[in-house]
Amino acid sequence: MVPDQTHGKPRTPHDVHPPSRSGELDNRLRRFIYRPDLLAERYVRRGDCVLDVGCGPGFFTREFVKAVGDGGEVIAADLQEEMLGLLRSKLEPEGLMPRIRTHRCRPDSIGLSPDLNGTVNVAFALFVVHEVPDPARLFREISTLLAPGGIFFYSEPPVLVPGKEFSDTLAMAEEAGLRLEERSWYFVNRAAVLRKE
Ligand SMILES: C[S@@+](CC[C@H](N)C(=O)[O-])C[C@H]1O[C@@H](n2cnc3c(N)ncnc32)[C@H](O)[C@@H]1O
């Protein structure tokens, strides 16, 4: 397990979100603000294979799974095994686990099997990229995993990620073969929609 980096020292913008604060990620207020159901409705189709990188305790994963339906699948990937455990404990009683594959990432790589290359229809990285040590590599991996025409949506909080930093990561994503379709806002957060060439 990655140690809780808040222990004994102040958090910095690029610290990994500690599982002890997972309650901040899956709650009613956040559901009301972010409407993850509408995000899923907008980008996910029945039967899709969806990748949720940095899924945390499954706040967005839940809606992606409902949207893919019985014929689809969601790969819920996170660095911290404890987050994946929390996701399982929440989504199992909701009957959603049969359509979810959990995957433990390494800090420097998503590390999914090459068998999945070109099979992902939609990838999400929600409030995650600023925690990843090598975003350029993350984007290259996502680009490789996406099917041609596949969508990548990512969002970052402006308090942690200034506009210049977001622009820099966007340039890395484009370098990885993802074409920018829309730069916008997701509630008050910076957001971008990119498409695999
Ligand atoms: C702020 S939380 C967001 C969780 C979820 N996307 C949400 O918005 O509810 C960031 C998550 O990214 C994960 N994470 C951090 N670095 C990562 C990496 N290199 N690879 C995969 N996941 C990572 C953390 O473990 C944490 O669960």
Features:
7-stranded mixed sheet; 6 helices; alpha/beta; globular; 7 strands; Rossmann fold; binds S-adenosylmethionine; 197 residues; single chain
* Binned strand content: 25-35%
Major sheet: order of its strands?
Answer: 3-2-1-4-5-7-6
Question: What level of helicity do the residues show?
Answer: 25-40%
CATH topology heading? Rossmann fold
Task: Report the biggest beta sheet as strand number plus sense, adding barrel if it closes.
Answer: 7 strands, mixed
Which CATH first-tier class would you pick? Alpha Beta
Structural class: alpha/beta
Task: Indicate the low-confidence ranges by residue numbers.
Answer: 1-8
Looking at CATH, the homologous superfamily is: Vaccinia Virus protein VP39
CATH architecture call = 3-Layer(aba) Sandwich
Tally of contiguous helical segments: 6
Query: First CA to last CA: what distance?
Result: 36 Å
Computed over alpha carbons, the radius of gyration is: 16 Å
Shape: globular
> Which small molecules are bound?
S-adenosylmethionine
Mean pLDDT: 94
